[in-house]
UniProtKB/TrEMBL annotation:
It comes from Lacticaseibacillus camelliae DSM 22697 = JCM 13995. Its EC number is 2.1.1.207. Residues 4-146 form the tRNA/rRNA methyltransferase SpoU type domain. Could methylate the ribose at the nucleotide 34 wobble position in tRNA. The lineage of its organism: Bacteria, Bacillati, Bacillota, Bacilli, Lactobacillales. One of its GO terms (molecular function) is tRNA (5-carboxymethylaminomethyluridine(34)-2'-O)-methyltransferase activity. S-adenosyl-L-methionine binds at V80, G105, I126. One of its GO terms (cellular component) is cytoplasm. Its main location: cytoplasm. This is Putative tRNA (cytidine(34)-2'-O)-methyltransferase. The keyword rRNA-binding does not apply. Keywords: Cytoplasm, Methyltransferase, S-adenosyl-L-methionine, Transferase, tRNA processing. One of its GO terms (biological process) is wobble position ribose methylation. It is found in: Cytoplasm.
């Protein structure tokens, strides 16, 4: 099983860079659906991802349709949107036999409305007050992927670290 963080036409290089770092830390695949709002050579993108780019598995998709052609049953697709009825933490992500895809929309407009209307059963939301329009995209990706990993018992991730000074005791 593999977890995927899917970004639909991301616009802000720093968000994508931060999400790339999260993908590296969680051994998740980062799927980027074009067109991107920046060059992948952008210095802000590279700076946000720091030196983790070699550890990020990135898959580029030419369009939403091209991406959707790669998601086959029984794989799970979740559309993260503030307009969803179901809360992201109420979903069971524990099925270890299949891939899980967590799709996030463009920072300014989210996922395309016709796509959302056609797939309401796949939509999940992060609860928040009505005082803000939206949470930061990289924060949302981290929240959702770590909930999935928690339910998967953090499979493949280190559960603790021993610091060098601890080895001296």
């Amino acid at each position: 099983m593999t977890n995927h963080i899917v970004l639909y036409q991301p616009l802000i290089p720093a968000n994508t860079g931060n999400i790339a770092r999260t993908a590296a830390a969680t051994d998740s695949v980062l799927d980027l659906i074009k067109p991107l709002g920046f060059s992948v050579d952008d210095k802000h993108l590279k700076r946000a991802g720091l030196d983790y780019w070699a550890s990020v598995k990135i898959v580029y998709h030419e369009s939403l349709e091209a991406f959707m052609a790669t998601v086959k049953a029984p794989q799970y697709l979740y559309l993260v949107s503030k307009f969803a009825e179901q809360t992201y933490s109420d979903v069971d992500y524990s099925d270890a036999a299949v891939d899980h895809y967590f799709m996030f929309g463009k920072e300014t407009t989210g996922l395309p409305e016709p796509f959302m209307r056609a797939n309401p059963e796949k939509a999940v939301r992060i609860p928040m007050t009505d005082k803000v329009r939206a949470l930061n995209l990289s924060n949302c990706a981290a929240l959702v992927i770590y909930e999935a990993l928690r339910q998967q018992n953090f499979a493949g991730l280190e559960r603790s670290h021993v610091y060098p000074h601890d080895k001296l005791k």
